[in-house]
Amino acid sequence: MTGSRPSVWIQDLTWEEVDSYLQHDRIAIVPVGSTEQHGPAGVLGVDTYVAITLAEDVAERTGVLVAPPIWYGDSSHHGGFPGTITIRPDTLTLLIRDVARSLARHGFDRIILLNGHKGSNLPALNSAVRVLHDEELPQVLFAVADPLHLARSSAPTIKETNEHHAGELELSHVHYRYPGKIRTDRLTDASVDFDEVFGGFVGNDLFGPAPDGVEIIWSGDEQRAFTPTGSFSSSLGLSEEKGKRYHDHIVTRLAELVEWLRGYHGPIGKPSDG
Amino acid sequence: MTGSRPSVWIQDLTWEEVDSYLQHDRIAIVPVGSTEQHGPAGVLGVDTYVAITLAEDVAERTGVLVAPPIWYGDSSHHGGFPGTITIRPDTLTLLIRDVARSLARHGFDRIILLNGHKGSNLPALNSAVRVLHDEELPQVLFAVADPLHLARSSAPTIKETNEHHAGELELSHVHYRYPGKIRTDRLTDASVDFDEVFGGFVGNDLFGPAPDGVEIIWSGDEQRAFTPTGSFSSSLGLSEEKGKRYHDHIVTRLAELVEWLRGYHGPIGKPSDG
Amino acid sequence: MTGSRPSVWIQDLTWEEVDSYLQHDRIAIVPVGSTEQHGPAGVLGVDTYVAITLAEDVAERTGVLVAPPIWYGDSSHHGGFPGTITIRPDTLTLLIRDVARSLARHGFDRIILLNGHKGSNLPALNSAVRVLHDEELPQVLFAVADPLHLARSSAPTIKETNEHHAGELELSHVHYRYPGKIRTDRLTDASVDFDEVFGGFVGNDLFGPAPDGVEIIWSGDEQRAFTPTGSFSSSLGLSEEKGKRYHDHIVTRLAELVEWLRGYHGPIGKPSDG
Amino acid sequence: MTGSRPSVWIQDLTWEEVDSYLQHDRIAIVPVGSTEQHGPAGVLGVDTYVAITLAEDVAERTGVLVAPPIWYGDSSHHGGFPGTITIRPDTLTLLIRDVARSLARHGFDRIILLNGHKGSNLPALNSAVRVLHDEELPQVLFAVADPLHLARSSAPTIKETNEHHAGELELSHVHYRYPGKIRTDRLTDASVDFDEVFGGFVGNDLFGPAPDGVEIIWSGDEQRAFTPTGSFSSSLGLSEEKGKRYHDHIVTRLAELVEWLRGYHGPIGKPSDG
Amino acid sequence: MTGSRPSVWIQDLTWEEVDSYLQHDRIAIVPVGSTEQHGPAGVLGVDTYVAITLAEDVAERTGVLVAPPIWYGDSSHHGGFPGTITIRPDTLTLLIRDVARSLARHGFDRIILLNGHKGSNLPALNSAVRVLHDEELPQVLFAVADPLHLARSSAPTIKETNEHHAGELELSHVHYRYPGKIRTDRLTDASVDFDEVFGGFVGNDLFGPAPDGVEIIWSGDEQRAFTPTGSFSSSLGLSEEKGKRYHDHIVTRLAELVEWLRGYHGPIGKPSDG
Amino acid sequence: MTGSRPSVWIQDLTWEEVDSYLQHDRIAIVPVGSTEQHGPAGVLGVDTYVAITLAEDVAERTGVLVAPPIWYGDSSHHGGFPGTITIRPDTLTLLIRDVARSLARHGFDRIILLNGHKGSNLPALNSAVRVLHDEELPQVLFAVADPLHLARSSAPTIKETNEHHAGELELSHVHYRYPGKIRTDRLTDASVDFDEVFGGFVGNDLFGPAPDGVEIIWSGDEQRAFTPTGSFSSSLGLSEEKGKRYHDHIVTRLAELVEWLRGYHGPIGKPSDG
Lengths: 274, 274, 274, 274, 274, 274
What we know:
The structure is a homohexamer.
Chain A: H1 15-22, E1 27-32, H2 46-62, E2 65-66, H3 89-105, E3 110-115, H4 122-136, E4 141-145, H5 147-150, H6 155-158, H7 168-177, H8 194-198, E5 215-216, H9 220-226, H10 240-263
Parallel strand pairs in A: 1-2, 1-3, 3-4
Helix pairs in contact in A: 2-7, 2-10, 3-4, 7-10
């Protein structure tokens, strides 16, 4: 469906090729990840690889374009582990606004921020585009997408254990799409006793039932104290098959989002011509 | 349980009275709300009243102190309705950091940000304290609390219909605690067809099952287009009884949080002495 | 004169009620205070209570609306005393600009910033609106009001001693309007020898003659060194009667300001139709 | 009294000469002015020349050093007149903080910000150093000086008419110190009717009695409407003699300030050793 | 020389693998590029690919690590062409500072910012690290590297024509390392007459003699006016061989830099132990 | 050629005189310098004096106007020497933007930023105006000028030794124009061995051949370690004659720039009417 495009990636097209695209479509996906520890088995780029592969595959399927990936996110809570590179949420917010302004200048008017860093980047992404849309770019429809919400229905049917940072599903996903990026000889069992650490106010399964809870903020140093390996939940159940089911479900849902955006004759509140 | 304190509110104490408190306790609650439209029936201050009454009651029950309320939040999406006063998330973030720095200077080392503006302030609050805790105030344990998460288990058992902005539960809550603040002759039925407006990617019940979704950003003007009354869900089922059950559940849970914080010998990851 | 308004406070009105107001009037008052030590007798909220009561009464008298109060101001110089919560002037400036932008969006075009924190917030308030009016909101007439200037003529006739922070007039004012907020058993005599501390360059009476002086900047810790009680001048002369005279004078003058603003057909420099 | 210093100006010394100074003294003056219209007779640099000449003379008399002048201030209200160059108060604040940090790094610990731009720069200067002193540079004693306050007692005895922007005293001052900078053939009579423009809420004499007033914010365009010449008050009474008396009074008072600072064994609150 | 490292890229290592590296080496390279038009033949990612390939190869050769690439730079002057995504220099500066802070936290103390976006990012990179090194990270030695300066001696011997944006050398370089990224059927001859456009004040050869000149700032729209194809100089001479010679020269020089940094026992000014 | 202007300096003109100028010309020069150590012989203001004298002379010759000088620049690398006053590049950037906005408001549409602080201010100046021109002031043509580039052809023919900070040419220049500002009894021989300090990656002659190099960032403290006198290269060859030749060359080239700007009918890319 990508037609004659040499690539789904803007960085791999010339300006004339992007110009051609803009004659018939105006959707862009911006993949946002992080560079942060993912336990003994996961490479530091796991979150960005998640964003990249999802963006790439939905773009292949639907024919939209993808902007170059943002490899850095808000990872201060993982900063106690070597290799984690965190940027302040304030910085990420400014970065996203600049990228969106440039895309809008060229006529892109539906922008999907696709976050691979489950949850943690969402405050900055959300803050970035709420103000931008309200004050500067009313003509651009922004959607903020995250596997955490896109896989709500399917994740519980795929995974076999509690899923948290560097868990079974996340690592299976990257393992499926990027064989070799997961050190399969370093998978770990769960290592955080959430009730002991967080008193029952924080759930241990991102896709499971949550307690009547609050958000507890912890620093990188504190994290290293409660999980010296960096692992939050078991990754022993890793499999290519789980990764594939999880990946396909999200890509399919993102493709539906793209189709809906294509048919949308906004602004929001005036969705259709009919 | 408040002992001899003349008030739970810091603004109603002298500095010597706060000094006395700090001899035996170091917890503070900061109520954060908004000034934004809540349909034909709800006053603009609904969210702040929610934060105020929850803070006040849990403080009464547990003996902790409450900082003066923040009446302004991130409400750009309601800005199309007269009276809504929104501040940029970047501004709210700076404000929260300054307030927390002052509290920390005096020795408060467990700070609960209590958000009454369900959801919408969370990105700014979260961004504010993550950086602050990691870079400047490692000694302060921050918890970000919101009825949305504290009432997860009870809300579905109390409400009779979908609950969204200015819905049955929210208005019942304020009606119960502040009789007269809700115009009971102006209650409305649901007025947003979420599937038509958001294509099935956004749920219509903050306490109910959610779709495999994304976050769609809308402006104040767009909101006014899709809900000319400002109402998102039915408030016809408003009752003092519902408000009471909802309120009591959250206060009880917050009181448990306070007790847990009191016993916590952090930093996080080193929860207990035993 | 408030007609059928259920309240002078925007937070206690629905958006439709604010909309009605805007059909006939476009003035808003924004009360700005502080949370800072006011000696052994005054509660920490004294400045905000001053702003609130003045705003409320002038609004009752003239029929204008009041935005929710800002409880935090620039109080770094009081930061050595427990309970003082200070925000940076830069933060206060951003906050004021956001609030003003929202009011302007709805059509409010005469905004009175009513400062209860005598003097100390004025730099931030002034900086906030000068740029805003010149660059963004030329259509809005801003007035920055402070008891320090509004009571110039009357204060000297009411007070019996030098008036400085937490002095006789300030505490009488709050005592008159909010009985119980002043600990009348903890009134203090003057405790700062201004000439010794400030070398004759700073006056000890905010409403009295001032020396050929300069502004000396002191920190919270320094303040605690030169006034261990937090008191600057005697509050022994506190009386309800003084508070009433002071309050009534300022409210009357503010009411005159409101009337003048109503008749003003700006922009400034083109005041009248005649 | 300047000893062997080749100059009072830091920019006219080598680093070794500044180093010598710091062996025995630690006071610096930072002159801050503006570039803004001063009516048909005054050059745009009037305010900066005021700051420069006062700084220079007090430094000559007392032997302290002066930092290079800041020629730009917060002059948005004069921006309607060609040649006015205004910087945002936020920018001035950052600039002052950086300059102060550098001075403090070298050991200067008493810094006088000497404002020649009567009043208008004070909010930014004040905001700059309050935070800086409280959070970063507790060891530096900051004084913010302005002719408006230093000449309180003498100005009324010198001038013959109301003194406001570009008035008799200000222009006499520059005329006395910089012959030729005032176009004496372009002196003007008063041209603003303050009561008509500001309704009696703003005084027309910076050194005279003021009404029970407020601060009204006006833009550069509005100013040009109410005073097409840029003049606020009469400069017809200009004389070298008046300039001299005004200048000498302020320099003398500043010299007293320098002496007091030299003897101060702060921090504030611990003024003396005795 | 990379020993047992699975990759030179931090994002492709686990935190434990980075930890191992830090036991014996503390150098990191941060590749910074841009996403901007490079004429009809060059893809938008040319600059980032330059930074990536140089970083990767010098890391392979010397055994140091590379942080994930930054795909966005300061490209406002190319913003008139579809696909160009520019971030403000202020944003890039904040981003670089955050990345450097994270690296420094883990013990990296020699950081090479490797810019592939010839020239245009240098102001932001330079501003970012000058302040950072002076105020926050004195222990980190920063080097800012750019092909423009690293290839000074060799570029003139390789290229056959004037080299400017999207010129022969730049495209040969990417063509050599990433076959297929250059549309060899869309190479163009020079299209900007520098003397006509810039009056002789701007040179047309980044590696050639320059006039007695100044920097002229142009916008994206202006650029499109003076070079409708986006090409500045001829790329007709593109060849793999030129790309190889250029690449090898720079990689060799960067490797020498790495070796020098390894032996440096700073801080700067104390280069050696001997 | 200055016609009847009383001065080339805006600060020495009244607003009416600037208004007259704007009837026939729209060029302004903004001199930017620094206050930083220039070795035992040079005063701290050397860079600003360079900017001032060049601006003044080219303005005299061509009849354009000059804005008041900016005495502070980005000098953190000299901050280890008493008297150096550095401002952050971020601050300088904001300052330049504000000054440019004011000039543009009055109709100046060709602005030359004339930097006397060779090199070090360029990142901030460049960052300031690139964004400004692209986003806010498309109608203003900005040129950033520096002796480093304007004297490319002549400097090597004048100087007799390597020229770096506080070198022969720089000091000759100020000595020629401001006799007495250079302590001719304190001239020094070269004191930095660039190869030892910078490993051959940094050139020791700003006007000579440069190595295949990188930019190494050093702090003020580090600088003091590698050049305890503050001198980088020999100033023993100082002469008035060299200063004159250098000065005249640059002024002539700047005058050519002014003439070119006068004839330019931009925007850039549309240079001429013909």
